[in-house]
Amino acid sequence: MSIGAVVIGRNEGARLERSLQTLMGQVAQVVYVDSGSTDGSVAMAHGLGAKVVELDMQQPFTAARARNAGAAALEEGITLVQFLDGDCILQAGWLEAAETHLDAHPQIAVVCGRRREECPQASIYNTLIDREWDTPVGEVQACGGDALMRLHALRTVGGYRAEMIAGEEPELCQRLRRAGWQIWRLDTEMTWHDAQITRFGQWWRRSLRAGHAFAEGAALHGAGPDCHWVAETRRALLWGALLPAMIVLLALLMPWAALILALLYPVQLLRLIRRGGAAWAVFTLLGKFPEALGVVKYHMRRDGRIIEYR
Predict the structure, then answer these.
(1) Which of 120, 159, 192, 250, CA to CA, is 20 to 30 A from 132?
(2) Neighbouring-strand partners of residue 54
(3) Where are the alpha helices (DSSP H) in 277-307?
(4) Using an 8 Å Cβ cutoff, are 257 and 265 in contact?
(5) How far is CA 216 from CA 16, 46, 65, 90, 199, in A?
(6) Paired sense of beta strands 88-90 and 108-117, if any
(7) Number of Cβ within a 10 Å radius of residue 73
(8) Considering the entire predicted model, what is its pTM?
């Protein structure tokens, strides 16, 4: 099989250069899709020999739209496409292991492996993200942004849903699985990711995007057999919106009842600490507030307007 790579990015700087350099010589073609970078990314990608696609910024940018544009730019004869975010570095040996697995299992459309944070010690947020990437191996319901896919399978289901601002990979995998394909995660090193999240505001915006993705995924596929992201949406609304609203309301009417209801938060925190430690528990519970806001923002959209979280 012939492998092409699609890398997407915007103002990724040195991270993008490293990402593209690791691909050169490993794949038959490298396509870089840029979404209005102002840091010289386009010229740098050209200089490294990548085919560059510059998105029309008169249309709202999404990673899904960028990946579709990259896949459309692949040369004839490419049968597999490695998608990669511009802040990720492909690990040696991944493509061989992934291609071998696809060759042996024709029913599999997508394989992904171990994504890890390159600098998990840089901040508590990077540490938590590194833990987030540590998911079970075997047949799974979805992949992330880095994955090797059969181009035929991708095109058969219509590619990524271009208007989605987040959660586009699990949504695509829902459609692939309903079409009879499988998604697999291998216990093989795939990519290093450089989140560079060092401030609370960055983490908050990332959690907002997660809530938006939960709501949109549930709206699209929540009625399916997997109840896609229905539970995540409900948890966000319960802990991040409904309970706070009830506590405020009761504080005006029955302060003692509001205090009792507020005790649910320390109880939930203790339960989460037993499951995953103090830091994970605190940010998991705190994250329900921006996630709930993301859910609400999704449902307040009008006329197909795309909301950006930066």
Answers:
(1) 159
(2) 34
(3) 278-286, 288-299
(4) no
(5) 29, 36, 16, 30, 26
(6) unpaired
(7) 16
(8) 0.90
